[in-house]
Sequence to fold (426 residues):
Amino acid sequence: MAAKKIQPVMVFADDHGNIYDHPEFLMLVRRGRELTLPRPDELIPLPEGSDLYLLPGRHALGLDPVTGRAEALDERAVAAFVCPTYTLSATAAYLQEDSATRLPLFAYGAVGFANDRFWVTATQVDKDRRQVFTGISQERIARGAQDLLKRYPANRLLQHLARCALTFCCPAAKNLALGRYEAPLPTARICNARCFGCISFQPEDSGFPASQNRIDFTPTPQEITEVMSLHARRTKNPILSFGQGCEGEPLSEASLIAEAIALFRNAGGQGTVNINTNASLPDTIPSLAQAGLDSIRVSLNSARESIYNVYYRPRGYRFADVLRTITTAKANGLFVSLNYLFFPGANDTESELLALTDLVTTTRPDFIQMRNLSLDPELYIGCVGDPAEPSMGLANFMKRLRKTCPWIKYGYFNPFLRDGVPVLWT
Fold:
């Protein structure tokens, strides 16, 4: 017997944050500027660990099934910030007031209600639970962070990361405090890009604050190595990652990082050493690989140079350098992931698929992390321009790319590598 089709109704909120479902109007979703009903195959129950947000200055929008018209309510729109490992295939539908303030740096997924539960439009691309903290008390995390503050008073990097766990609730810093999964290693104070949605630096006239403070010192190789050694000692399958949300571009500190990695490796340090990077400086890669780097993760919002440039706003490098960094990393035996910042309606188009297929075929990365681009939807579309093509949908986009590039694996996090091979695929 075929499963009953789910058709959620719209949800809305009052000014106090109380959420209601509408008795008649259906859930609408947005892809780019297109408003549509959700596709049946993209609806999933709201995942554990997700959050619901009230959207100020934005009216809830639903479909009247009698007239077939989109209708706006006086009440506020609601969006879902889905748990990590899930990629959104549509954003929330709403009618924005002219006076609406800009939204903070989150991803705003479409959400509806049916069968006594909330539903979202998303796909789980990874089953790794490294950023799920269900069942772990805040007190336990705080104890771990306070212990680091007490035991390593002279290590500025450990002090910085412990405070990140306590103040900004950074998932990577919390995992360092807990002694599990992936440890962050921020090093760079400067950046050679001016990303429109940068989470650690925003000019005063941006209209929205950075999510966290950028590191304001340069750690020594010894400080970095101490963090690496600590985490590697107490973690199964440790991952040690440069290039965090609280810093600039780590390749700008390539010499420092190479020295720290070499110190760690020469002392017998084990684990996967990774750099999250904008891949702007290809000539730094060979020395990092020689020092003991295992993998890099290259951030892209698009495989089309024009779309990349208006979002990243590079200074002193070009898109060609990004591609050369990938090929250089592969030539030096590194595992390469793309940190592909996905925005429904802008990325899942025919032109973007062709461009990404060409990039993957030419440079041969191993892995694509399907991350949600976190920015006010109106701002992002205003930045990169209105999509000129219809959306094919996330699932179809991923399926078609995999068909052409069958070696590619999808995920959400940097994988732990053993002999250059991920230990567990999902």
Q: What stands out?
A: The longest strand covers residues 51-64.
